[in-house]
Design goal:
The complex is a heterotetramer of chains A (374), B (469), C (639) and D (260). Chain B has helices spanning 3-24, 29-37, 95-112, 132-143, 157-170, 207-221, 235-251, 269-276, 291-298, 319-322, 350-361, 369-387, 400-408, 444-449; strands at residues 73-76, 82-88, 120-121, 126-127, 148-153, 173-176, 200-202, 226-231, 254-260, 282-285, 309-313, 331-335, 389-390, 396-399, 413-415, 418-420, 433-437, 451-457, 463-466. With 469 residues, chain B is of the alpha/beta class. Chain B folds into two domains: 73-204 and 338-420, Rossmann fold; 208-334 and 439-466, Response regulator (Rossmann fold, 3-Layer(aba) Sandwich), CATH 3.40.50.2300. In chain B, the strands form four sheets. Chain B has an eight-stranded mixed β-sheet, with helices on both faces. In chain B, strands 2, 3, 4, 5, 6 and 7 form a six-stranded parallel β-sheet that branches. Chain C is an all-alpha fold and 639 residues long. Chain C contains 27 helices and six strands. The radius of gyration of chain C is 28 Å and the shape is globular. In chain C, 60% of the residues are buried. In chain D, the strands form two sheets. A six-stranded mixed β-sheet of chain D has the order 6-7-8-3-9-10, with helices on both faces. Classes of the chains: A mainly alpha (374), B alpha/beta (469), C mainly alpha (639), D alpha/beta (260). At the B-C interface, helix 1, helix 2, strand 4, helix 4 and helix 5 of B face helix 8, helix 10, helix 14, strand 6 and helix 19 of C.
Chain lengths: 374, 469, 639, 260
């Protein structure tokens, strides 16, 4: 999808900024490596988390596995949310801050479906049907919310300076969030526990995984593949890509720009809706603030993966999920820093900064196009 | 306002000019003239802990109303209401605490009825936002209203810090039903806490008691030796986890990991893994919902924590939390809630009170502190009634300092939370904490009532174990 | 005869559409809990509660829109317009009735929490469904017609009517504040106000063209005013009978009595109508002035406002002073962020980090708490240089890695930095210094040598905050209009070109970050002192967003605009962690925030009081159309 | 000694060669035209000279010193200025401000003196303003008077081109690189611009390198013409020499450039 146009990294003489960035790069690398492996032979220094594990006092091997998988599950959902950011960015070139609320709306509204199924006993007796329908409700809600936001607000702002739609989306995010709070209250909605078939652990390739986490990972992966095929193969998908390249030319070529942009929002919304149900399945509690942090993390993931790039969004999501799950214990704990878990967002955002310092266009952000030539 | 205070403000004015003048550098006629007039205003800078507020109201010529004390007084016209206010956390994530408390106040008003023939008015409920900013702005708004005698609040200790001096300057007493921070009152050893002021009282327990009692139960009764603690970045939970750890270590136990989560965290695997690495036998997590829910729900999936004893605290003692199947077998420390048999000041039993609560608000109490707040309100109303002087035409005169003194001398006051006696630093609560055990998630109320351990404050401030029931 | 015959089909259709929107509005304010939540607050006793006011407003709006929807060319008469309003009102009423029937028939509270029995009672006027429906439709028709009718009045009458109504609401609403002002106002400050006001009026009339006379006279009046205000400060003006008469005690706060409401309305109405001629004449005279003359006048007026403004904190009472000091703190941050975004175009979403750095530096260096293991216990003034230093360092630390990032990347990375800062301050890791979750308490008041500014002394705090705000505004203003300011502007327009014009991008960006950081840092330091205690929870992302919103709503790049933004967003609506003038709306504050932002961005993106530059930028096309023939010009490139 | 000397310059964009082993030089006081079909790499050369892009190999010498790796602002300070093919004036700044900004590297007053409005600062501001007015008067009456305070986006296309040139002059350069200064202009405007380019050297002693498509302009202004194709120099010499060169004819006719 759309390539982000960044200034060509120039070969400059080594200035203040370069020395600073190199110091950060090297410092971060040393920090991470020492955190993991420690400084062998130095008593009283950082022990290194891996060394701790090997000597049997740190995090156990199984624990690393659990951390990894929970990070993967969390990251899959971030990836799904990141997609919405990335798609919209690709097509309209602005960050839709309200996307976290799109995710929340699906999670919150589908609660009532899930709750009804649970009360009726269908949740247990027909788990696939019930879950499927719940996901449909969530997708529908999120899609409607996403498309409506575009229709009401963003459509009128095309072509205005980029700060305007950004602020609008922040306003939209507040508006949706507190409207939902007004409508559905500020209490936590507790989803019914995952149906019996999804309880306990399954063994995949000799690795034990909680079935709910497995479900999350599988469903997101499948959704991603389907979406990718959609964008790559269908006419509408091609139209989306055309608009991402150049909206005006696409319009000249007969693409109905408004419709395709709506569709982009719809697709992003649907993905967020799926993520909403998965979120509820895993964590079971949703309320009107549920979208806030995942929204920001999704945005982070989109940038880490390379904004505007679909695969990048997913990869970025997985990366952020893994980093915040594994990172604190892997790197910080090795340094003997207390209470590392509370620093997981610090780790996640630091990872973001580092990724951008190492690769200014994100992990899968494509290299720059050919600059203007005479 | 006294003349002195006015002059001080002038001084600030001068500062404004000085700053502007310093910036411009060419216009300095203004500050020399004004500075000259304020040359001798430096006198009153010594802090005076007993407030210097004067009477709010004009005096009548006769013996009534009597001469006002140092904090002034309030003259209530015949038939006019007695003004008290609430300042609780009634929005955002802690609303379940503050709203619950305001209901306690409303019920107390209902039970107490009129004060010597005057109705009681609560005015607009102020929000402490559970933050210093909210406490300050709410307190300012209340202090600006005329004739407010006392305030019930705050919900959060953080909001109380800036609110107390504002009320102090206005001669208003503040009684909290849920502040537990030790520095607001005393350490029970006769040392005033550094944020204590003499217009502040509370009916809630002091953190020192709960943390210590919870640790004693963990060490002695549960036989735990290695524990992890989790707080959520809130001063309350952080303080509680800290004082738990202190006592637990003193007893000979070991805190293997003291860590925390963020309130909005959902994935608890990392934090639980961090704790698992320390191989504890128990985890003390005195936090709130939903983070507490996530922890009990996810702890089963962590290898190494299969047999660990989970141990929460009062932030989680709610029917919602107790109805999670995973909470069966989990202990919770908190203020003693075995109130059922207790009768409050008006003779209303706690059981009855809860029934009325449910009837009035359509749900069971969402937290424990409505009871403490009920008592706090009762105490305030009783004190007002006791110190009020009736005028010839049905007026009422209440001296603020007398009201404060009366409250500080309250002893053996019958409350639904137990018998209340205020000490010299405003700690009035029974300071009895209990540990409960949830056995059946289908009957959360039974779990909340299932007390397995009680402890209270001894004469020297130490923790003494009390018999059950 | 069909009164609508004269109106076009289109007008009717759009009236129906507006009516449906109005009906949705009715449902919305009811379902999100505004009607019930605000139902207890009586504005005018006993007839008007805030909750009903919301519904009335919806009806009037719909009618007005529908009436105005008829195009002038349609030949729609006054009666026709009123009928259009009624059509809209009835349509809305029908939709509202459908909603009423639905919520009366089914119990939907399980899902929609705020559709409670109490709400249903309110909407039914406690008389059952029939009344509710009748009122919805009848009231809709009435209000719709009224709304449209207002639209047909002469501009003067319309202004008088709506303005007077607004005054009634304001007076009813600001009960606490107005009571306090009337109760506490003393003769001294009243006379001072009078002296400065009258003197400046005379001066402006007679010596408007001589700046020296004007300034000298003003200064003299000001000095006299100060002396008088101090000398007579103990003599109460004795105006307490006014609030005693105007307000009546009710559950949920005091409300305006009906007779007082009528008086306020009549006075405001009469004043608007009577003084209209004079106002117009004044405006005409002002318009006729030469630009140089006008500048002199503006200069004089600013002098008067400053002269009077200085006395205001003595009058306004503690609540307003408290609000204004909070507003001032945010204004300080707003001015800083205005440099970063408004001047230099760097979208910083983690601005709160600098605020936190300032607050924590001040708190740690000055706290006298015995619980702290490292407490240098400096005074405010000793610690202030360190605050600035810390802000500079923070500015460079945040600024350098992002120097080569653009727009959206910058946004997320700075947002990340903001969160990193908050979590680090909160963390166990640094709790030895920062106090972790327990924050820092016992931050001492500011010693000025002759006076101690305690956090609880709202008046003194306000003066202090205003002094710093004035300083910040002064610095911003001077920087804006300088070589540095121009280089920021150029960078904002086109970074690459700015560089080829010789602007050192690294220096320019870092300077913007550092200046912004210093202002926020000082704001943080004042924040710490004002509250005497700080906790990490005060420094969440929402603060960054609030500051961003206030400068955008106010008018980015324009210092008075930022001030207006701070006043509206923080002073009136209430900031992220504080309540504003409209404290009754606290529960819906963020909802209103969102709605206001949407409205502003869609209809007035340049803000309430924009800089000329920004207004031009956002309305380029119109400006160009005005100035040139369309064909001759092309639009400037974007990016 | 050449003022500007380019030696075996090479630049490619992800495999697409933009500039290949390019050699050319500009002497002081010369007006050199760079021509070539679209995509020949003309603007890239300008970008490389002004430091906006870095070459992969080769050398650029300015006044005998290498300037590779220097940032554009430093190069502006050394005396290299440019305009842009796609007119990049600061659209929302006024005409006067546009030109005032351009003097950034010739002035020095920083934040502190700006805040205190020191005497030095005020003097410098006055100078900046005067110089800006002076530079704008270079274009006769087109950009003076009420235009000073008009935002640049209100200007006509030709006036924006003029403003760009004014901005470049205001940096007080030794050499100015003009990228298609007459593109989009009508014949009379083009004539005027041609004359201006001559005056740049004659009145102000600025060396000029100009990229131009309009052959008439090239003929009228150039002392020397350099022809690029595919990033390589295929011919060099006087206008007459170049236009009769077979390589050049082939380059243009073989793949005729899109008309501008």
């Amino acid at each position: 999808m759309k390539l982000l146009k960044l200034p060509q990294q120039r070969k400059r003489r080594f200035g203040f900024v370069d020395s600073f960035l190199w110091a950060v790069r090297i410092g971060a690398l040393v920090f991470v490596v020492v955190g993991i492996f420690g400084i062998p032979g130095v008593a009283g220094g950082p022990e290194g988390s891996l060394f701790k594990t090997l000597s049997g006092e740190g995090v156990s091997g199984e624990a690393w596995r659990d951390l990894f998988i929970s990070g993967l599950a969390q990251g899959s959902m971030y990836g799904m949310i990141a997609l919405g950011y990335s798609l919209v960015y690709g097509v309209l070139g602005f960050i839709n801050f309200a996307h976290g609320e799109v995710f929340m709306s699906g999670a919150l509204v589908s609660f009532f479906a899930a709750d009804a199924f649970a009360t009726a006993g269908i949740w247990e007796s027909q788990p696939v049907l019930a879950l499927g329908f719940t996901i449909l409700v969530a997708m529908a809600t999120s899609t409607i919310v996403a498309v409506l936001t575009e229709r009401i607000a963003y459509r009128r702002l095309r072509g205005s300076p980029r700060l305007i739609p950004l602020i609008t989306s922040i306003g939209m995010s507040f508006f949706i969030r507190y409207t939902f709070r007004g409508l559905f209250g500020d209490s936590f909605k507790t989803y019914p526990a995952a149906p019996g078939v999804l309880e306990g652990r399954a063994t995949i390739f000799g690795v034990e995984i909680l079935k709910t986490q497995l479900t999350v990972i599988v469903v997101t992966a499948v959704s991603m593949v389907v979406l990718y095929q959609f964008v790559a193969r269908t006419r509408m998908g091609r139209a989306m890509r055309a608009i991402a390249e150049d909206r005006e030319i696409a319009a000249l070529m007969g693409v109905n720009v408004d419709r395709v942009i709506s569709l982009t929002f719809a697709v992003g919304g649907a993905m967020a809706g799926i993520a909403g149900v998965l979120w509820a399945l895993l964590f079971r509690q949703v309320h009107f603030l549920t979208g806030f942090l995942p929204g920001i993390k999704g945005f982070t993931a989109a940038v880490v993966g390379g904004i505007g790039n679909m695969a990048g969004a997913y990869v970025g999501g997985l990366a952020i999920g893994l980093v915040e799950s594994v990172g604190p214990l892997l790197v910080l704990d090795g340094w003997g820093i207390p209470a590392v878990s509370q620093l997981k967002d610090v780790v996640a955002f630091s990872a973001l900064v580092l990724v951008l310092i190492y690769r200014p266009t994100g992990l899968l952000g494509e290299r720059l196009s050919v600059e203007e030539r005479g | 306002m006294s003349k002195k205070m006015k002059f001080r403000h002038l001084g600030v004015l001068v500062l404004v000019f000085a700053l502007i003048a310093a910036a411009c550098g060419d216009d300095d006629t203004a500050d020399t003239t004004t500075a000259a007039t304020t040359a001798d205003t430096t006198a009153d800078t010594t802090a005076d802990t007993t407030a210097d507020t004067t009477a709010d109201t004009t005096m009548a010529p006769m013996a009534f109303p009597p001469e006002a004390g140092a904090w002034g007084g309030v003259l209530i016209a015949a038939g006019a209401p007695v003004e008290i206010r609430t300042l609780q956390a009634i929005s955002e994530s802690v609303a379940f605490l503050g709203v619950d408390q305001n209901r306690g106040t409303e019920l107390a008003l209902e039970d107490f009825g009129d004060v010597l023939g005057h109705p009681v008015n609560l005015g607009t409920a102020e929000d402490d936002l559970c933050l210093g900013e909210g406490g300050a702005s709410g307190a300012t708004a209340i202090a600006a209203q005329e004739g407010v005698l006392g305030v019930i609040g705050t919900t959060c200790s953080g909001a109380a810090f800036p609110a107390i001096p504002i009320f102090h300057a206005a001669g208003i007493v503040l009684i909290s039903g849920s502040n537990t921070n030790a520095t607001l009152t005393s350490d029970f050893q006769g040392n005033a806490g550094e944020n204590w002021m003499n217009n502040y009282l509370r009916t809630a327990h002091n953190d020192l008691i709960q943390g210590a009692a919870a640790a004693i139960f963990a060490y002695d009764n549960l036989g735990l030796r290695k524990m992890g603690t989790i707080h959520d970045g809130d001063p309350y939970t952080s303080g509680l986890a800290g004082s738990f750890g202190l006592t637990f270590t003193e007893l000979g136990g070991e805190i293997v990991v003291a860590t925390s989560v963020a309130k909005e965290d959902t994935n608890m695997v990392p934090v639980l893994t961090e704790i698992a690495a320390g191989e504890p036998d128990g985890i003390y997590f005195p936090i709130f919902q939903p983070a507490g829910d996530f922890i009990v729900q996810q702890v089963g999936g962590i290898s190494g924590l299969e047999d660990v004893q989970m141990y929460g605290a009062d932030g989680l003692i709610t029917p919602d939390h107790f109805s999670l199947p995973e909470t069966e077998g989990v202990y919770y420390s908190g203020p003693d809630l075995g109130f059922d048999a207790n009768a409050g000041f008006t003779g209303e039993t706690y059981t009855n009170l809860v029934a009325r609560y449910e009837a009035a608000y359509g749900e069971l109490p969402t937290a424990a502190f409505h009871a403490h707040t009920y008592d706090a309100t009762m105490m305030l109303l009783f004190a007002i009634e006791s110190v009020a002087v009736e005028g010839p035409d049905g007026e009422l005169w209440v001296d603020r300092l007398a009201l404060r003194d009366f409250l500080y001398n309250i002893s053996d006051f019958a409350g639904v939370t137990g018998t209340l006696t205020c000490d010299e630093f405003g700690d009035c609560g029974g300071n009895v904490v209990s540990v409960i055990l949830n056995l059946d998630s289908d009957d959360p109320q039974a779990g909340i009532g299932n007390v397995v351990f009680r402890a209270g404050k001894g004469a020297g401030g130490e923790v003494v174990i009390l018999p059950l029931g | 005869m069909n009164p609508l015959a004269a109106t076009s089909q289109d007008s009717v259709r759009s009236a129906v559409k507006v009516g449906l929107l109005g009906g949705l509005g009715y449902i919305f304010v009811s379902a999100v809990g505004m009607v019930e939540g605000l139902g207890e607050k009586n504005v005018i006793d006993p007839i008007l509660s805030l909750g009903y006011l919301m519904l009335i407003w919806v009806g009037l709006w719909a009618g007005h829109r529908a009436g105005a929807g008829a195009l002038p060319g349609d030949g729609v008469s006054v009666v026709g317009r009123v009928w259009l309003g009624i059509v809209a009102g009835v349509t809305g009423g029908l939709l509202a009735s459908a909603f009423l029937i639905w919520i009366n028939t089914f119990v939907v509270r399980e899902v929609f929490t705020n559709i409670s029995p109490a709400l249903i009672e309110l909407l039914n006027l406690r008389q059952g469904l029939g009344t509710g429906v009748a009122v919805a439709i009848g009231g809709g028709a009435l209000l719709g017609g009224a709304g449209a009718a207002i639209g047909t009045l002469t501009p003067l009458m319309r202004r008088a009517l709506t303005g007077s109504f607004l005054w009634v609401l304001i007076v009813g609403f600001l009960e606490v504040i107005l009571s306090q002002i009337f109760r506490e106002i003393d003769l001294g400050v009243f006379l001072a106000f009078l002296i400065v006001g009258v003197t400046s009026w005379i001066l402006l009339r007679n010596f408007g063209d001589s700046q020296r006379v004007l300034l000298g006279g003003l200064l003299a009046a000001f000095v006299v005013g100060v002396l008088v205000s101090q000398a007579l400060s103990e003599v109460n003006l004795g105006l307490r009978f006014i609030p005693d008469f105007a307000y009546i005690n009710r559950v949920g706060g005091r409300a305006l009595t009906l007779s007082a409401a009528a008086i306020v309305f009549l006075v405001a109405f009469a004043a608007t109508v009577l003084f209209d001629g004079r106002r117009r004449a004044m405006r005409a005279r002002l318009a006729a002035l030469e630009p140089a003359e006008r500048q002199k006048w503006a200069f004089g007026l600013v002098g008067v406002f400053v002269g009077l403004g200085v006395f205001l904190p003595m009058i306004l009472g503690s609540v307003v002073n408290e609000l204004l000091s909070t507003t001032g703190l945010f204004l300080l941050m707003g001015l800083g962020l205005n440099i970063v975004i408004g001047y230099a175009g760097l979208l910083d979403l983690g601005y709160v980090a600098f605020f936190a750095v300032g607050a924590y530096t001040m708190a740690i260096l000055t706290s006298t708490s015995t619980a702290r293991n490292w407490a240098p216990e400096l005074s405010f003034w000793e610690a202030l240089p360190f605050v600035v230093l810390a802000a500079v360092v923070a500015g460079i630390l945040v600024g350098t890695p992002v120097i080569r990032m653009r727009g959206d990347y910058l946004a997320i990375v700075t947002l990340g930095f903001g969160e990193i800062a908050r979590i680090l301050f909160l963390s166990e890791w640094f709790s030895g210094v920062t106090g972790g979750a327990l924050g820092v308490t016992k931050i001492p008041p500011i010693e000025l040598g002759f006076y101690t500014v305690k956090g609880t002394d709202t008046q003194a705090v306000l003066y202090l905050v205003l002094a710093f705000v004035a300083l910040a505004a002064f610095v911003s203003y001077r920087l804006q209009d300088s070589r540095i300011g121009r280089s920021w502007m150029a960078m904002r327009e086109d970074e690459e070109v700015a560089e080829t014009m010789g602007v050192n991008i690294v220096k320019a960006k870092l300077l913007a970050f550092v200046m912004g950081a210093i202002l926020a840092g000082v704001g943080g330091a004042l924040f710490a002192v004002k509250f005497g205690t700080i906790f990490p929870a005060s420094f969440s992302i929402i603060v960054s967003i609030t500051v961003l919103v206030l400068i955008i709503v106010g008018g980015m790049g324009n210092i008075p605009g930022v001030a207006v933004g701070a006043l509206v967003m923080i002073g009136i609506l209430g900031g992220s962690n504080s309540s504003g003038l409209l404290r009754e709306f606290a529960e819906f504050k963020l909802l209103i925030y969102g709605a206001l932002m949407l409205y502003m961005m869609l209809n007035r993106p340049e803000g309430l009081l924009p800089s000329k530059r920004l207004a031009r930028e956002l309305h380029q096309e119109e400006a160009v159309q005005d100035a040139w023939l369309q064909g001759e010009i092309e639009q400037g490139e974007e990016d | 000694m050449s003022l500007l000397k380019i030696v075996r310059l090479h630049k490619d964009f992800g495999g697409v060669i933009a500039i290949n082993a390019l050699d050319f030089h500009v002497d002081e006081g010369e007006i050199v035209s760079v021509i070539g079909p679209n995509g020949a790499g003309k603007t890239t050369v300008f970008n490389l000279i002004t430091g906006m892009q870095a070459p992969d190999s080769g050398e650029i010498l300015f006044e005998g010193e290498t300037i590779i790796g220097l940032t554009p602002d430093v190069l502006t300070g050394r005396g290299i200025a440019r305009t842009f093919q796609n007119v990049r004036v600061f659209a929302n700044m006024t005409v006067l401000e546009n030109v005032m900004v351009a003097q950034h590297c010739r002035t020095s007053k920083g934040a502190v003196s700006a805040i205190f409005r020191t005497a030095g600062f005020r003097r410098e501001e006055e100078e900046i303003r005067e110089r800006a007015a002076e530079v704008l008067s270079f274009f006769g009456t087109r950009l003076v008077g009420y235009r000073f305070d008009q935002p640049a986006f209100m200007l006509s296309y030709a006036n924006r081109r003029r403003l760009e040139v004014a901005r470049a002059i205001a940096t007080q350069p030794k050499v100015v690189l003009l990228d298609e200064p007459t593109a989009g202009m009508n014949p009379s405007e083009t004539r005027e611009m041609t004359e201006l380019i001559g005056r740049l050297r004659d009145d102000r002693g600025i060396t000029v390198v100009v990229i131009e498509h309009e052959m008439k302009v090239v003929r009228d202004v150039s002392d020397r013409v350099v022809v690029l194709d595919h990033g390589e120099q295929i011919a060099e010499g006087s206008y007459e020499e170049v236009t009769s060169d077979e390589n050049v004819i082939e380059a243009y006719l073989g793949r005729p450039a899109r008309a501008h």
